[in-house]
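Q: Here's a chain of 186 amino acids. Please give me its 3D structure as tokens.
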Amino acid sequence: MALSTLDPGAALVVVDLQLATVAGPTVRPTADVVRRSAALAAAFRAGGRTVVLAAARLDAPPPGRTQVGGGRPPVPAAALALVPELDPQPGDLRAEHHGWSAFGGTTLADDLRARGVAQVVLVGLATSFGVESTARAAYDAGFHVVAVVDAMTDFSDEAHAHTTGRVLPVLGETATTDEVLAALAG
């Protein structure tokens, strides 16, 4: 892990912790990811920092053709809701996106810059899909990126290991929940 510093205006970006996504099969328990993400959200809020709650529009994916997405069953509207453990607050930013990245097709980059945010701390699902895509977009938009690797999971160990070990360290820094909580406290 390599968290060098947590900027005073760092924002937490929670990627796709929705009822539909946490119900799927993953290699690490989503309950742990939700618990750690909720703890980070509470700590960010307690410190007066920005929390972004990103939600994928699973019922309206982008129009591009894929080999695996064509026969996807409809997602009930209730399943699109964020997990209640995140305890959404009025001051949280919301990013409803149609692609994999929380930045894709949203005003998130501008909203963060308007709040003086230069660093984003990422958690959520899935490591090699939503989190990696969000990290790439954040990096491309000029944000410092921190990926909290024990507050994310994936559909396979290989994908999780590849993204956390080879992709995310190139886009920013990686850390654990405890390391970020310690940086927030001290």
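Q: Can you summarize the key feature?
A: The chain has one domain: 11-58+82-185.
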